[in-house]
Structures are given as C-alpha cells and as structure tokens.
Write a structure and sequence with these properties.
The chain has helices at residues 2-5, 7-21, 29-45, 51-75, 80-99, 109-112, 127-145, 147-157, 159-164, 169-195, 206-216, 228-247, 252-277, and strands at 117-120, 123-126. The protein is mostly helical and 278 residues long. Strand 1 and strand 2 form a beta hairpin. Helix 3 (29-45) runs antiparallel to helix 4 and helix 11 (206-216) runs parallel beside helix 13.
C-alpha cells in the first residue's frame, strides 16, 4: 500500500538521484513532471491524438527540459541550482498557460492503465508500483555493473580526475540530466494513472519530497556517494512520514515545513560524516 502511494515520488527520486550523484541538484523535477502530464493528457483529450503518441510527446517534453538543463550546466557552466530554479519557474508558467489552469479529465484508458491493480496473495499491487520497482532494479544494475554507471560516480566524486582518466564529463552530465527528464516524464504518467486526470498543479510537494527521499536514502548532496536503492527507502520513509502526519491531522503546510527541516538535518549529518572521514 505504501509503495503504491509513493510510486510517483519514487520515480522522481531516481532521476534526482542520478543528478545528485554528479554533485548537482534539480529543483525543477516536480514542475517538469506536471508539464509532462498536462502535455500528454491534453494532446490525447483535446486534440484527439493517439494516446501512445501523446504519451511519447509528454516524455519528449520532459526529456527535452532535462537536456536543456544539462546543456546549460555543461556548455555555459551555470550552477545546477540556478539553472533548475529557472526551469522550475519556466515549466510552471508554461503548464499554467497551456492548461489554462484547468484539470484535464475524461482520459483514455491507456493513460490510466498503470493505476490498475492485481492481487498478489492478499495484497493489491498496482502496475505502476511494478513499473517503479523495475526502474529501480534497472537503475541499480546500470550504476553498479556498467561502465557508464562507474563514470557517473567518478564524475560526481572528482570531475577533474575523471576528465584526466579519459571520461567525457560533459557527455556524462548531459546524459544524466536528459535521463532524469525521462524519469520525470514516466513519473508524470504514473501520476496521471493514479489520479485519473492531468493536473497542472501536480508536483508542488513532490519536488521537495523527491529531494528529501534521495538525501534520506543516503546519497550525498556533494556527489559521488550513494546507492540508488536507498532513494526507494527514502521515498517510503517520506510517504510513511506524510501519512502519519496526515492521520494526526497536521496541515500540509506544516508537513512541508517538517520535511524541509528533515532535509537540512540529513545534509548536515552527511557533511559531518564527510568531515569525520577526512
């Protein structure tokens, strides 16, 4: 049940993990996800596009945003924080303008298929949850067992040393940001499947939750250290935490406040552990 509730944040956290492992950060993930969801649903509902083609268009938009982020970080040498803060606002504005701040309903069944469930013993499991777990397994394998995965860690740990060993640092970073955008698009599809609508206001809390999940999962904001499966654990922790606060009647604004404090504490602990290692 918890995994079904955190599948959107969980997939966002995969993309966020890849970027944070390179010592970057993406503040735009939630808003890019919202834009992808609006694009794919509006193309299918308002323009009558084939649902599969509409989904691909949404994925292309989110991947494109990731690619732009990567190019700005590598080619113009802008800090990831500034770049993604800018694209956060751009994605939000485009989403609101394009959707006219209206929720898109009456979606084709293809777009809600990942929200369907099946019985696994006495537990109902959604196809979206299975998708999330598969993506984590795939990301874990690539990062642990392949050369591109090792290159990513090397770039996050010391980009200059990585460059001296022959790794194309810019290509690694551009690929990472583009892949993160693709994961945001998949998260958009999961969000659409779970809610049954294209919501222009989606992603406003997921942005912070995804970063929190990555940090709580043990990935260092300073790059080069972390295990992708830790982000899944972090997403579950965030989900359980928010559910607990909701059951206690804590307003969402205070939940966001407490989540922000958790991020600061986790980063502070990581910084102190790094100093201890040195």
């Amino acid at each position: 049940l918890v995994l079904q509730q955190v599948m959107v944040v969980g997939v966002l956290a995969i993309g966020q993990s890849l970027i944070i492992l390179t010592a970057g950060i993406d503040l735009s993930c939630g808003m890019v996800m919202a834009l992808g969801g609006v694009v794919m649903t509006k193309f299918a509902v308002n323009y009558g596009m084939d649902p599969y083609a509409a989904i691909l268009c949404g994925l292309a938009v989110t991947t494109g945003f990731g690619l732009i982020n990567g190019l700005l970080v590598t080619r113009i040498k802008l800090p990831p924080f500034i770049v993604t803060l800018g694209t956060l606002n751009i994605a939000f504005a485009i989403t609101q303008i394009y959707s006219e701040s209206q929720t898109i309903t009456n979606l084709p069944s293809v777009m809600t298929a990942l929200g369907e469930t099946f019985n696994l013993g006495s537990t109902e499991v959604s196809l979206g949850t299975v998708t999330m777990l598969f993506l984590y397994a795939l990301a874990w394998f690539v990062l642990r067992e392949t050369a591109p995965g090792r290159h990513l860690y090397a770039v996050g740990n010391n980009p200059e040393a990585a460059r001296l060993t022959g790794i194309n640092v810019d290509r690694v970073l551009i690929t990472v940001y583009a892949l993160a955008g693709l994961f945001y698009g998949i998260a958009a599809l999961l969000s659409v499947a779970r809610t049954g609508v294209g919501d222009p206001n989606a992603g406003q809390t997921e942005n912070l939750d995804a970063i929190t999940a990555v940090v709580l999962g043990g990935t260092s904001l300073f790059g080069g250290r972390g295990i992708i499966l830790g982000s899944l654990v972090g997403a579950v922790i965030v989900g359980v935490f928010r559910n607990g606060l909701t059951l206690m009647g804590v307003a969402s604004v205070y939940q966001t406040l407490i989540t922000g404090i958790l991020v600061i504490l986790a980063v502070a602990a990581d910084q102190m552990s790094r100093k201890g290692v040195r």
